[in-house]
Structure formats: structure tokens, C-alpha cells
């Protein structure tokens, strides 16, 4: 009770402080409430999925750690997602990879998947008031190799074309069922350890495959194409590079996915937002945290995330931006990993929504550059955390670090009992 009183008092002080700079804290909280983040289901089970022919994780991605409690069944994934979302303010989405289908113990190959394999997900999500997004899965399959949609061999390429076409069909049915577009992401690992004899050849093949895949028009799903710098074992050449997908996205008006772990480490993802918004219809983000490489560390509140969030808000186009998370850490409690990453992303967005942007723009227009820099610096220590605590309180989720106790309890009662 005293705690709640403190939170409310601190909020009132913060509200006044922000108002003095022309910022409306109530409006910022209302805007944050509208931002649904797309949670990646694959943090629950280390990207294993539920195919009954599953092998090791391939495609140049890697999960490290063996913390106990990995979800081993669809029910366990759902239970973990319910637990995680109970500790996160707001209403969010869930992103499924194609390997998470409800295959009922049968072997259903990737070129055979159908909407019926995701029907139970659609119904469950509806019960939870949650919308679904979708991803085709090119990795961890006997036909994955180093080349899928860019493979010169007809048999392999056509298999993956068929898989991806089916994923679009499933996404369309999901979108219809949930009466809200399903955002489908296409990422393939295709590449080569050494420099190929022709870089052009495989990109030409990939362009043709994509044209065939996208030849069917759908109304209830949206296509996103995700580039990458390199995968492990595929260091010299990635067919689906950023230049490739940026070109394809602009030419064909597809959504380009920016995964924050898929660029050179010193490259600013924030700087790309305004350019993409000028030339592509919408943007999809995979918020991740690269450490030395695309290591998919748990997202934390760092400068890169803050910079990106500020650009998203400043662009005035939040309705054209989809924000998903993409990391997988098996070294710590997996539900904790979700909660840390989602709350960090929301905190960054809140700080961006609380930026005294009207005043900063006014200084800029008047060429008051010292004043602009001074306010940018001072804005960093404004009492945004009091607004965040109030946002959590309003959403009836734990304030501050108190969520740790809930996760510890869930671990003791549930995940520690998994074999
Ligand atoms: C599971 C993958 O991480 C995901 O599908 C893809 O988006 C990626 O980022 C691969 O590095
Ligand atoms: Mn990604």
C-alpha cells in the first residue's frame, strides 16, 4: 500500500516535471499501451519446435546454455508464454515458427504443413486475446544444407518454395481467424563459408524463387523479408544480404525486417528507419542484442535500443512499424529472459515517447544547437522510471524488480520439475 502511495506520488512529481518541458505523460502512457510487441515463441524451447523428425539446430544460428526447464511440449510453451505475459504490461502478440505446429505425433514434412496444424494455436491465442504472427523455417531440416530458396537444384529449391508458399497460406488463415493481419517473416540462411565463384548466380535464383512465392495475393497477411550479415559456417557470403532485400523490398513493396543483430556491430539500425519508411510500405523489427556477432543475447536497455526507439517515435509512423523480439538464451531462466527483454523494449519506447521533441525541434529550427544538445543530455536523466512504475501499476503487473519473485516461484513450481 505504502509502495503504491509512493509510486503515485513520484508519478505526480514526474508528470509536473515533464509538463514543464511540454511533455504529456498521460499521452505517452496511452501510446505505449497501444504498442503490441510480438514475442518470439522460440525463447521457450531453444528453437527446437515440435516436428517429429527434428534434429540439431542448423542454419548458422546457435543457442548456448543448458539451463533446466526448457519447454518440451506445446502445452509447456503456452504455459510459459502465459506466465511471461502476466509480468509484462500491455497486450502482446506471439510469433510462431513453422516448426511449432500441432502435428499430433505425426511426421508432417515442411512441404506438407497446412493451416489445420496451427488451428489449436489460433484457438488458444483467441482465448488469450493474443494475435499471432508467423515465420517460415528453412533451418534444422535434412534439406536445409547451405542453400534453400537459392539452391540451383530444382528438387531442393522447389521443396522450400512449396514450404514458404504454405507458410503464407497458413498466415492468411491466421489473419482471417484473428481478424487482424498476420505478419509473416521470411528468413533463410542461404550462404557460403567461402566466396562463391559467382555471387550473382544465387541472388538471381533467390529473386526468382521469391517472385514465385509472392505471386499469390493475400489480404489477411503481410510479407516481411529479413536480411542477415552472415551465419556461423557461412561467413563469406549471404545470398539474402541487406542490399538484396532492400532492393527487392523497394521494387516489390515488401516489408523489410531489420534484425538488430544482423548488421556490422558499429552500424546504426536507428539510422535506417527514416529511409525505409520513405521507400517501403512498413517496417518489421527483430529486436535482439548482438555481442561481438549475432549472438542473440537477451535484450537490455542499452544505448542502441534507446536510439532505435527514439527514431521509431520521431518517425511519427508507429502504425507502420511492427516490433518483434528475436533472441534465444538458454543460460538463464527462459521466462525471465522474455520478461527482461520485453520490459527493456517497453522502457526504451516509453523514454522515446517522453522525449521533449517539440522543444528540441524548436531549438533546431532556430539554430540553437547548444540548447538542443543540452536538452538532449538533460532528457536522459528525466524521471521516466516514475512513469514506467505508474504504467506497470495501472496494468496490474509487478513494479520494478518485484517480478523476480514470480519467476522464482514459477521455476520452483513448474519449470524445475521438467526433466
Ligand atoms: C529463429 C531465427 O533467429 C529467426 O527466425 C531469424 O529471424 C533470425 O534472426 C536468424 O538469425
Ligand atoms: Mn531475426
DSSP strand tally? 12
Structurally, the number of domains stands at 1
In the CATH hierarchy, what is the superfamily? Divalent-metal-dependent TIM barrel enzymes
Helices and strands, in order, run as HHEHEHEHEEHEEHEHEEEHEHHHHH
CATH topology: TIM Barrel
The amount of helix comes to: 40-55%
Based on CA atoms alone, the radius of gyration comes out at 22 Å
Q: How far is it from the N-terminal to the C-terminal residue, by CA?
A: 40 Å
Continuous helix count: 14
Main sheet overview: 8 strands, parallel, barrel
Q: Overall pLDDT, averaged?
A: 97
Bound small molecules, which ones? the ligand C[C@H](O)[C@H](O)[C@@H](O)C(=O)CO, manganese (II) ion
- Morphology call: globular
Assigned CATH architecture: Alpha-Beta Barrel
* Class of secondary structure makeup: alpha/beta
Low-confidence region ranges: none
CATH class placement: Alpha Beta
Amino acid at each position: 500500500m505504502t509502495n503504491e502511495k509512493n509510486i503515485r506520488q513520484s508519478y505526480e512529481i514526474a508528470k509536473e516535471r515533464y509538463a514543464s518541458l511540454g511533455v504529456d505523460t498521460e499521452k505517452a502512457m496511452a501510446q505505449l499501451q497501444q504498442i503490441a510487441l510480438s514475442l518470439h515463441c522460440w525463447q521457450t524451447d531453444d528453437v527446437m519446435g515440435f516436428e517429429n523428425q527434428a534434429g540439431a539446430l542448423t542454419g548458422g544460428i546457435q543457442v548456448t546454455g543448458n539451463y533446466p526447464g526448457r519447454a518440451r511440449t506445446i502445452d509447456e510453451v503456452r504455459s510459459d508464454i502465459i506466465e511471461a505475459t502476466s509480468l509484462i504490461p500491455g497486450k502482446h502478440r506471439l510469433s510462431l515458427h513453422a516448426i511449432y505446429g500441432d502435428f499430433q505425433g505425426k511426421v508432417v514434412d515442411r512441404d506438407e504443413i497446412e493451416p489445420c496444424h496451427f488451428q489449436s494455436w489460433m484457438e488458444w491465442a483467441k482465448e488469450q486475446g493474443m494475435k499471432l504472427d508467423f515465420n517460415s523455417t528453412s533451418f534444422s531440416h535434412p534439406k536445409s544444407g547451405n542453400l534453400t530458396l537459392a539452391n540451383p537444384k530444382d528438387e531442393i529449391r522447389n521443396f522450400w518454395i512449396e514450404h514458404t508458399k504454405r507458410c503464407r497460406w497458413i498466415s492468411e488463415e491466421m489473419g482471417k481467424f484473428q481478424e487482424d493481419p498476420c505478419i509473416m517473416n521470411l528468413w533463410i540462411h542461404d550462404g557460403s563459408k567461402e566466396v562463391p565463384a559467382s555471387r550473382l548466380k544465387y541472388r538471381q535464383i533467390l529473386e526468382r524463387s521469391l517472385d514465385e512465392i509472392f505471386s499469390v495475393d493475400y489480404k489477411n497477411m503481410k510479407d516481411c523479408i529479413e536480411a542477415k550479415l552472415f551465419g556461423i559456417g557461412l561467413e563469406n557470403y549471404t545470398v539474402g544480404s541487406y542490399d538484396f532485400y532492400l532492393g527487392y523490398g523497394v521494387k516489390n513493396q515488401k516489408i523489410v525486417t531489420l534484425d538488430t543483430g544482423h548488421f556490422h556491430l558499429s552500424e546504426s539500425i536507428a539510422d535506417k528507419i527514416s529511409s525505409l519508411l520513405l521507400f517501403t510500405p512498413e517496417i518489421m523489427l527483430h529486436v535482439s542484442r548482438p555481442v561481438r556477432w549475432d549472438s542473440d543475447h537477451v535484450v537490455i536497455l542499452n544505448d542502441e535500443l534507446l536510439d532505435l526507439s527514439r527514431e521509431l517515435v520521431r518517425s511519427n509512423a508507429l502504425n507502420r512499424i511492427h516490433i518483434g523480439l528475436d533472441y534465444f538464451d538458454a543460460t538463464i531462466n527462459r521466462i525471465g529472459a522474455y520478461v527482461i527483454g520485453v520490459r527493456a523494449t517497453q522502457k526504451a519506447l516509453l523514454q522515446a515517447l517522453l522525449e521533449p521533441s517539440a522543444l528540441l525541434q524548436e531549438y533546431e529550427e532556430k539554430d540553437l544547437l547548444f540548447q538542443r544538445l543540452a536538452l538532449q543530455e538533460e532528457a536522459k536523466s528525466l524521471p521516466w522510471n516514475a512513469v514506467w512504475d505508474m504504467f506497470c501499476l495501472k496494468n496490474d503487473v509487478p513494479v520494478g524488480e518485484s517480478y523476480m519473485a514470480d519467476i522464482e516461484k514459477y521455476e520452483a513450481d513448474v519449470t524445475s520439475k521438467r526433466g
